[in-house]
UniProtKB/TrEMBL annotation, chains A, B:
<dbReference type="InterPro" id="IPR011032">
    <property type="entry name" value="GroES-like_sf"/>
</dbReference>
<dbReference type="InterPro" id="IPR020843">
    <property type="entry name" value="ER"/>
</dbReference>
<keyword id="KW-0560">Oxidoreductase</keyword>
<dbReference type="InterPro" id="IPR036291">
    <property type="entry name" value="NAD(P)-bd_dom_sf"/>
</dbReference>
<dbReference type="InterPro" id="IPR045010">
    <property type="entry name" value="MDR_fam"/>
</dbReference>
<protein>
    <submittedName>
        <fullName>NADP-dependent oxidoreductase</fullName>
    </submittedName>
</protein>
<dbReference type="Pfam" id="PF16884">
    <property type="entry name" value="ADH_N_2"/>
</dbReference>
<dbReference type="InterPro" id="IPR013149">
    <property type="entry name" value="ADH-like_C"/>
</dbReference>
<feature type="domain" description="Enoyl reductase (ER)">
    <location>
        <begin position="15"/>
        <end position="330"/>
    </location>
</feature>
<dbReference type="InterPro" id="IPR041694">
    <property type="entry name" value="ADH_N_2"/>
</dbReference>
<dbReference type="Pfam" id="PF00107">
    <property type="entry name" value="ADH_zinc_N"/>
</dbReference>
Amino acid sequence: MDLPIRYRLARVPAGLPDAETWTRTQEPGRAPGDGELRLAVRYISIDPAMAGWIQPVRSYAEPVRVGEVMKAFGIGEVVDSRSERYSTGDVVFGLLGVQTEVTLPAKGLRKLDPKIVPLPKYLGGLGMPGFTGYFGLTEIGQPKAGETVVVSAAAGAVGSVVGQVAKISGARVIGIAGGADKCRYLLDELGCDGAIDYKAEDVGAALDRVVPEGIDVYFDNVGGATLDAVLARIRRHARIVVCGGVSQYATLAGARGPANYLQLVAQSARMQGFTMLDYLPRIQEAAMQLGALMMKGKLKTREHIMDGIDQFPAALELLFAGGNHGKLMIKV
Amino acid sequence: MDLPIRYRLARVPAGLPDAETWTRTQEPGRAPGDGELRLAVRYISIDPAMAGWIQPVRSYAEPVRVGEVMKAFGIGEVVDSRSERYSTGDVVFGLLGVQTEVTLPAKGLRKLDPKIVPLPKYLGGLGMPGFTGYFGLTEIGQPKAGETVVVSAAAGAVGSVVGQVAKISGARVIGIAGGADKCRYLLDELGCDGAIDYKAEDVGAALDRVVPEGIDVYFDNVGGATLDAVLARIRRHARIVVCGGVSQYATLAGARGPANYLQLVAQSARMQGFTMLDYLPRIQEAAMQLGALMMKGKLKTREHIMDGIDQFPAALELLFAGGNHGKLMIKV
């Protein structure tokens, strides 16, 4: 049997990660100790937050250090168990890392049922991106029927859940995405009331046309010029949910702040950040809500699956170029 | 009797207002119509928000147009009344404008009692700046006992109320101000636990020293580099109250956004703007709370009073240079 493959942080990039950010190593795994499991990794989740996880800056979690295996969410199958809660063949979700095999404590993993939905859904709409969109929108955005909700990266794993849940809450929903394909997907599949292709037109001008009434809730995944364009058009008591700022990850050192932030004063508005960590105790609630919507066909998500762990550097590049269609992951 | 003097907007400045921003006119007033009052203006409030009021940008109120009398809060004495609610000699507060005399509807004015406190207090601690600090801190900042509160422009009209009310709520309070005099005032008179002189030292380094535990509540009047320094040091679930951004008023066109705003995500924190307009129906509550504190000697405020309406352009310059000590106003 081949030795497990692992991708380790070779050096911290100045901007976005590239091929030289990683070292590929092959080395034997270890047998599980008491309370531990050995897992064969099946799927590795590729997420925008990865750019932040390797930067040695103050954040919600300790950064990955040079030499360590890259952090990643993933789905694994138990091949050896020293925990009484798990048996061989069980499927689990957790921080498994970018590697084909891992031995780690059973504590902190979550068991998945492969019979309910296909496994990739557990990394997308019924996983962290789905929960992130659900809690960010409902807890922080709090859209009311008749309000206008704008979401950026709207065709992405988080954004597509945000748009559909906002629509169900009775709001008017406008999605922003890059490219005609994604915009068609927003309108035809996700039921958005409007779509803005930021690669084809000026977002500010498009917002003036599509939401002349102004914006009540903005779910932001991108930051940069889009955030400023929205800030200039918020309504009184608007809520801006800050989920990420992917346009700024390439230039963390000289990141651009939202120059129009004083519109928060003019409109008595709020801009609030969050991570899924805030809602960990409530994952079951989100899973049930989103699962029920999915069963009823009211929540569509799609996955973009690349084949083989050695696609890892290319997958990240694709992600930050906005080239993926749906939740990006690697099938190991 | 001399004709009333008025200061009108001559042209919109590119940055902060200067002498050429204004035209001084002298022209007769008019007799009050039904429901109107004629007032002799006694005090004119000089406020940072004035820089925004003359910019033709989207804000909480219509901007002053070229040719119009400059908007200003003030205190006036009724010299002629056509309203049954007011008699000659009554003293009122309202948007009276930068002029020595004005005729306007009685509606929207507030009656003041000159016997309780000296009139200038009604433009400071017991007026809009005091109410602004009170509601912004208690409703948006929501400091809890034991938390750390940082306030910028802490020796100013709003900031000094914020610091003292935060202290009463049991928080540890650090004030940021410009100059040794103001910092001494923060420590000796206002009871701050720490003071940072932004003109003498790097605010980030000073915060590292004074609040190594991080910041729970930041009441921001200035924006710019100070806001970024604070964002880099917020604690989980921190609240940033955006009251103003006086450091950016000189360059509204190319205002600087807070580059560290993604710390809102990392720390699940909130940044929220507001204006006093949100709390107009609750002015009585604030007046009673702050009035009671002032009577008990627990709320100190000071006023910086300049003499004569023709000091108006110079007063604004002093304000934006941070040269005033306490609430700035003109005695007409």
